[in-house]
Amino acid sequence: MSENLIEVRGLRTQFGSHVVHDGLDLDLRRGEILGVVGGSGTGKSVLLRTIVGLNPPAAGTVRVFGQDVTALHGAAREALERRWGVMFQGGALFSSLTVRENVEVPLRAVPGLSPETRAGLAELKVSMAGLPWNANDKYPSDLSGGMRKRAGLARALALDPEIVFLDEPTAGLDPIGADAFDRLIVELRDAMDLSVFLVTHDLDTLHACCDRVAVLAEKRVLVTGTMAEMLKVDHPWVHEYFHGPRARAAIATGRSKE
Ligand SMILES: Nc1ncnc2c1ncn2[C@@H]1O[C@H](COP(=O)(O)OP(=O)(O)OP(=O)(O)O)[C@@H](O)[C@H]1O
């Protein structure tokens, strides 16, 4: 059985009296691309933010690489954070920095890197994210939405992470751009031995990339499994999502892993 890099157990998250998650369990296995889906507002982004320690849970445990995220502080916490990269929705780039400088931000935490080495490493990640050489000196405002997402991905890869968190990477992309991004995710997973936590609404992405899917509903992970297993789940939202017209269109494109 493969090792779990992330283990969430009995998670409760809430804002005031608004309970977002209650009794949520989730695993991310080493080497897999896990798609996290659910209706709008079911707490996919909050779950991502909670796992990376940006949102303290009200109850439950979040273990990443076997360590309790909420219990670590200082240097131990920073060391853990260096083992993952996050691509937030919209890229979350610094608008006053060029693409290269944005990717250099996480590298500044690495002691002993000369400015030239840091710039070289950043340029390598920009290239791995599929951006042309001349993108390095551009500002986020000079880039298309798809290029901004690739720049956000390059920054997430800056420290050679073991886990990458992607929040709706294909949202807002045209179908060709989204297709290319899906392929890039799989290529990078294979090339860099990544494990990927991927929040998405995009059924094409689930078909093209994901080894397993976790469905958020009723404040928890209602079901986890392969796409084939999702088709057999007898729950109204899950059935509608995986059998609706968009699901049929995604299957018809023939990009399915299976
Ligand atoms: N900082 C916050 N303060 C208060 N409520 C919040 C905060 N962040 C998120 N929420 C609420 O938590 C719920 C889940 O939000 P979240 O963004 O995780 O949903 P989502 O499943 O990612 O939605 P979508 O698919 O629309 O992006 C929403 O009702 C949202 O309003």
UniProtKB/TrEMBL annotation:
<dbReference type="InterPro" id="IPR017871">
    <property type="entry name" value="ABC_transporter-like_CS"/>
</dbReference>
<keyword id="KW-0547">Nucleotide-binding</keyword>
<dbReference type="InterPro" id="IPR027417">
    <property type="entry name" value="P-loop_NTPase"/>
</dbReference>
<keyword id="KW-0067">ATP-binding</keyword>
<dbReference type="InterPro" id="IPR003439">
    <property type="entry name" value="ABC_transporter-like_ATP-bd"/>
</dbReference>
<dbReference type="InterPro" id="IPR003593">
    <property type="entry name" value="AAA+_ATPase"/>
</dbReference>
<protein>
    <submittedName>
        <fullName>Phospholipid/cholesterol/gamma-HCH transport system ATP-binding protein</fullName>
    </submittedName>
</protein>
<dbReference type="GO" id="GO:0005524">
    <property type="term" value="F:ATP binding"/>
</dbReference>
<dbReference type="Pfam" id="PF00005">
    <property type="entry name" value="ABC_tran"/>
</dbReference>
<feature type="domain" description="ABC transporter">
    <location>
        <begin position="6"/>
        <end position="243"/>
    </location>
</feature>
<dbReference type="GO" id="GO:0016887">
    <property type="term" value="F:ATP hydrolysis activity"/>
</dbReference>
<keyword id="KW-0813">Transport</keyword>
